[in-house]
Structure formats: C-alpha cells, structure tokens
Known about the structure:
The chain is α/β, with parallel strands linked by helices. It is built from eight helices and ten strands.
Amino acid sequence: MLNSPEPTRGVISAEPEPIELDWSKSALLIIDMQRDFLEPGGFGETLGNDVSQLSRAVKPIGAVLTAARDAGMLVIHTREGHLPDLSDAPRAKIERGAPSLRIGDAGPMGRILIRGEAGHDIIPELYPLDSEIVIDKPGKGAFYATELGEVLERYGIENLLVCGVTTEVCVNTTVREANDRGYRCVVISDGCASYFPEFHAMGLKMIKAQGGIFGWVASSAAVLEAMTSSTTLGATS
Ligand code: TIU
C-alpha cells in the first residue's frame, strides 16, 4: 500500500457493489469513540442507553486502525463535545429530554460532553497517535462547524472509510454530509454500533439502498482484505 511499492489501489467487496479505491486519496474516519458514549457514567448512559451495546465495534475498528497505521493512511478521529462555557451548545440540545445529567453537569468522568474532561476523550483502546488528526465537533455531523472539510482538501482525500458510533446518529449524519460534498464513503459495518441494534441494521441499509444512495457498506474483514490486495476493477475512483 502507501508504505510499499505495491499498487496503491484496492477493491473492497462492498454493498451494493464492489468499490475500487486509491488508498493515497483515502482516509480512515473514526467517529466519536469517546468514553462519554461507550463507558458507564457518560453522556450515552445519562440518556438512558445501555452503553455495553457499543463495545462490539471496538475490535473491528482497532484492526482497521492498525492496518491504516501500518499503511501510512491518513487517520482522523472525531469527538463530539462542547466548550466549557457551553457557548457552542444549542439550548435545544441541552434542554431536551429528561436525562439523568445534562450536558455540562458534573458526572463521574467529569462534566458531561465537555471538551477537556475525561469522559470526552477517546477510549484507550483506540487512542489517537500524536501524528493523527482529532476533530472536535459540536454537532452530530463531523463537517458542521469544524475544519474537517479543509483538512480533507489539504490532504487530497476523495474517499472515506467511516466507522464509529452511533450508526444512525453521528455516523449517518457525517456520511450524509460527506456524500453531499462529493466524498465516496465506505461504512465499516461491524466497526459501527448503536444503542439500538435495529437502528444499526437500518442505518446501514439506508446508506447502501437505492444503488448506494449515501455510500457503500463493507465488513472490516472486507476492508482489511482489500488493503492487502492489489486487485483492480479497471475503473477509476
Ligand atoms: N445518542 C446517540 O446515539 N449519539 C450521539 O448523541 N452522538 C453520536 O452518535 N456520536
């Protein structure tokens, strides 16, 4: 791949159809694998969710992250959260529902969903290297009010391997934003998870339906296979 004399293209066995990618124009985008969503006492649990539902995505993401690091692929992590003074948190987001703790309240991992607090950080298993990019975002989509678009342009990225949590919320919102901006998104099915397994399944179906209306869906095994194979479809993408 990028770090070898091998061809820099690979075909991912994806749905609704295989897709050939130029790895040099591809990035791994890991959405919100934060303690606030995956660990007890964080934002996800305050909303009434069973956070253990998300742990299944950790190993598949870890495998693709290792392969991306070995290959020299651009790796971008995102974190959802707000400034300590809450100036970037819409009142509608803070006030909605009846969570046990609201955004900004003190919890066991620090203030809920606030930048700089322990709960806001990425889980140790997938912790970013100093060389990797971390995008802090106030919304569900990773493009809204962030520098992500500029970063992707600067690195000449056209394709995104997308994983993280939760499938139907921040992953789907980001994929929809990316799709409208012209990026090819391949969503790693077992590298995503939801508090609601049925939303996970439907969230993936929505992406790949109608000929891939928002993008492609592939397993981590298929992505890893493509990253070590030099097969080409003869198409350019
Ligand atoms: N609640 C929920 O499913 N998700 C979020 O609030 N944020 C993300 O998905 N990252």
